[in-house]
Amino acid sequence: MGVPIELSLIIVIAAVVLIGAGIGVAFLLRGRKTKPGTYTSPRDENDPAPTGGATATDAAESDVVAPPVPVAEAEAPEAAAEPATRIEVPEPALGRLARLRARLVKSNNALGKGLLVLLSQDKIDDDVWDDIEETLLLADLGTDATTELVDSLRERVKIEGHRDAEGVRSMLREELTKLIDPSMDRSVASDRRGDRPAVVMVVGVNGVGKTTTIGKMARVLVAEDKDVLLGAADTFRAAAAEQLQTWGARVGVPTVRSDVDGADPASVAYEAVKAGIDQEVDVVMVDTAGRLQNKVGLMDELGKIKRVIEKQAEVDEVLLVLDATTGQNGLNQAKVFSEVVNVTGIVLTKLDGTAKGGIVVAIQRRLGVPVKLVGLGEGADDLAPFVVEDFVDALLEN
To answer: What does the subunit section of this Swiss-Prot or TrEMBL entry state (predicted)?
Structure first.
């Protein structure tokens, strides 16, 4: 008995539909590849982590770390950014230095200009030397450095007898340069260490602009043709991760961040460094939450972040961001942070518009570490490497 023609047609149509659906599913599955260097969707609590791989909790050993949080790397900036957004080309270091020097010259610089006026007088008696000492102390140079500089100037004036403007300027340039110490290594770790990236932690108190500073540092490094990755380990401040990711996306730098508000910062930092190792970048910069130096629990947490990172890679650089306008209070902050995480360099922001240029000397004397970067404005490229000779020349410029 033959199959009715109507039933045959139905069977044929159904077969065609099923074959077409199968091809469509295969096409969709083939297109769902995880992008190299990015994390897959976060697992839920019933989906165990694969065995054999180290986690932040495993790495911490004696450190108490919260269970690994879902961490995802930002999509490549060109994919994550709005269609109209384009990757910016940061200004090179030479252009920054020239512009920042010009801005410092225009600032209210009482240190250099005040000393030039005092030392150019026809008669330099004890009253003038007292004024010179007061000028240095008001500029936050610090007692020891002030005494050393005044003694050196007294001796040179007595022997050389400089009185003309150019002679005084030359003498001051030499003594101030010597005081700031051009022999200190002011380079920022940004080259790969064998088979791993350089790791930089950025720390500081609340409100000094750490996240913004990291964004500006990323621009400096990109301008030097470095491959950079950012780690958003400030998990407590609302929108900190978004802010950091935005800075990175502007110059094509990816950001590793947590999908969970208030996540354990040590775990995020660990995952960021792990991603940097896997992706073979030049440098990983880890942002941390601001914390007051007198809060013992928060400072202990900062130490834990560093220890957890170092289970897989050494922290090559710890940069402390300081506001130049805080003066001597900045020295107290620096001392405590250095004790907890061994600060290797200072980033000094808001140096323009202040007479406190002496804080550069005071900080270096207190910590024995150099000022490596300075910021003189709010612009995206208003951060530059600190060059002693340029800084001193700007102080003494008319």
So the answer is: Part of the signal recognition particle protein translocation system, which is composed of SRP and FtsY.
Q: Model confidence over 93-118: pLDDT tens digits?
A: 666 667 767 766 666 566 777 888 88
Residues of the chain with CATH 3.40.50.300: 190-343
What are 263-317's pLDDT values in tens digits?
899 999 999 999 999 999 999 999 998 776 566 677 888 899 999 999 999 999 9
Alpha helices (H) in 107-239, listed in sequence order: 110-119, 126-138, 143-160, 165-180, 210-223
Q: What is the dihedral of CA 229, 311, 334, 397, to 10 degrees?
A: -40
Q: Please, what's the b/e burial string for 113-130 (b: 16 or more CB within 10 A of its CB; e: otherwise)? A: bbbbebbeeeebeeeebe
What residue numbers does the annotated binding site cover?
A: 204-211, 287-291, 349-352
CATH 3.40.50.300 is held by the domain 190-343: yes
The boundaries of every CATH 1.20.120.140 domain in the chain are 102-180
Cβ(240)–Cβ(57) below 8 Å: no
Nearest to 247 by CA among 223, 215, 282, 287: 215
* pLDDT at residue number 6: 52
**The pLDDT of residue 255 is above 80:** yes
Domain 102-180 has CATH 1.20.120.140: yes
Phi and psi angles of residue 285, each rounded to the nearest 5 degrees, phi first:
-110, 125
pLDDT band for position 73 (cuts 50, 70, 90): low
* Rounded Cα–Cα distance for residues 116 and 377 (Å): 26
Detail the residues annotated as belonging to a binding site for GTP: 204-211, 287-291, 349-352
The tokens of 60 are what?
């911490």
The answer to whether 239 and 246 are in contact (CB under 8 A) is no
Q: State pTM to two decimals.
A: 0.77
Quote the tokens at residue 102.
Answer: 């010009």
Strand 283-288's sheet: what is its strand order? 71-73, 255-258, 228-233, 283-288, 198-203, 317-323, 345-349, 371-375, 383-385
